[in-house]
# Entry
Amino acid sequence: IIFSFYSTIVISIKQKNISEMKSDFINNMTHEFKTPIATINLAIDAIKKKLMGKVDTKSMGYLNIIKDENNRMNNQVENVLMISQLEKEKIELEMKMMDLNKLVQLAIDRVELLSGSVGARITKKFDKKENIMMLAEEEMINVFVNILENSLKYSKSNPVIQIMVKNEKSNTIVFFKDNGIGMTKKIKTKIFEKFYRESKGNIHNIKGHGLGLAFVKKIVELHAGFISVQSQIGKGSTFKITLNNVNKT
# Structure
C-alpha cells in the first residue's frame, strides 16, 4: 500500500512537471512569434504608405489581404497564449463599461474579408440601442469573431448568420444562428475541448487549430457567463451566450 501511494505521488509530480514544461514552451513560442508578426505589419504599412497612389487598386487589395491575414495569425497566437495563461490561472481580464452591441459590430467588421470571400450575409438585431455592461473589450470581440468564423467554416454556399442580442430581467443573451451543416450530439459534447476540430465538415477549407471555441468558453466563464449550442444535421447551429446583468447600467 505504501509503495502504491509513493508511486502515485511520483507520477503526479512528473505529470505536473510535464504540464508546466508544456505551458512554458507554449509561452516562449508564442512570444517568439509575436515579434515577426509585428515586424510584418510594420513593413506592410510602410509599403502601403510608399505606394499610395502609385499602384492599382487590385495590388493594394493584395497588400490589405496580407495585413488582414497577418492580423488573423496574431489573433491565433494571442488565443494560444491566453489559453495557456488561463490554465495556469495567471490572467486577469481588464474589465470596463462597454457597449456590447458595439463589440458585436466590431467583430462583424473583422470577419468582413472572410465573409465576403464565401458570399456570406450577416444580419444583426438588438433589443436595445445600447447594452452597457462590464466587459473585457478585446477578449469579448475575439469571442464573437471565433463564433462567426466557426459558422463560416461549416456553412455551405451563401452562408447566412443571424446575430440577436436579447435583454431579459437578469441576463443579456447573444445568439449566433447559422444555416450551416449542423452537428451531431457527439460533436456537440466535444467542440469546446482544446484542439478539437471536425475537419470533415470544413466546407470552405478555412484553416484553424481547434482553439477557438475552447477560448470562447474560457472567456465567457470569466465574465460569469455560460455558452451553449443547439444544432441539427442539415439545419444549422445556434450558439447562445448568456451574460449576467449584475454589472450592467
Q: What stands out?
A: Residues 206-210 have pLDDT under 50 and may be disordered. The CA atoms of residues 18 and 24 lie 10 Å apart. The longest strand covers residues 236-244.
